[in-house]
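Hi Y.,

Following your request, here is the sequence exactly as I used it, all 101 residues.
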Amino acid sequence: MEMFELKYFHAVAQTQNIQKASELLHVSSSALSKAISRLEDELRVDLFHKEGRNIRLSPEGEVLLQRASEFLALEKATKLSVARDRAQVEFKLAGPEIMLA
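Below is the corresponding structure, written out as tokens. Let me know if you'd prefer a different format.
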């Protein structure tokens, strides 16, 4: 299990939509799907129930979401405590190209 896979899972779980999560993370939908599949294979559980084009968290997915949130918060806190005043804030500006120009 890799941190980027947890980040991907977290975004998909929060949005309950692979396409929206891919836009937020600036990665392809297929990359997200593959990361989720790797997690499911590794954990030997289904993290989402797929209902047509909709997805929702399975009970196991709910547990992983809670833990992933804790891991991601710990990662952020660790970076801030180690880097202290050298910590950088990352902003991602998204929107229609015409508005971003």
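Strands lie at 48-51, 54-57.

Thanks again,
Q.
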